């Protein structure tokens, strides 16, 4: 949890459902329902519905950020909606900005392949497996990130298997995120 804003982050690697076209167009799933991430959270179907309705009613949009940094927007999400599978996004990296060009280059090189949502938990319960079931979330942003937490959401990596180094880095990132979350819960 971000101590300054109270926002939580849910990481996801781009999966079979994410595509990057022409180096700047991105579409696919930023979050998948029913899948447990490395932090022990599961997003339930419909968790984003109220937030997306509120965002549309206020004429706002979900922000596309670089590594959750609000000072570094890198593109525009033109479409964000839920379907039976998860939270689907479609947008454009802005290659007219330096950070947008850098993001496109890093994606093309395979250095960046993750998405992460920035959100506030509105409603959550524990399931019988001890996992936190997120049933209502206030969505703020979807970021391109280095270390995602949900291995199934990933850019331009169709049928690519995780290698040992990649898995070790993800485990380390998950451990840091878990520690950060626990510290934030203890402080709150």
TrEMBL record:
It comes from the Bacteria. Pfam families: Peptidase_S78. Residues 22-163 form the Prohead serine protease domain. Keywords: Hydrolase, Protease, Viral release from host cell. One of its GO terms (biological process) is proteolysis. Transmembrane segments: none annotated. GO terms for molecular function: peptidase activity. NCBIfam families: proheadase_HK97. This is Prohead serine protease domain-containing protein.
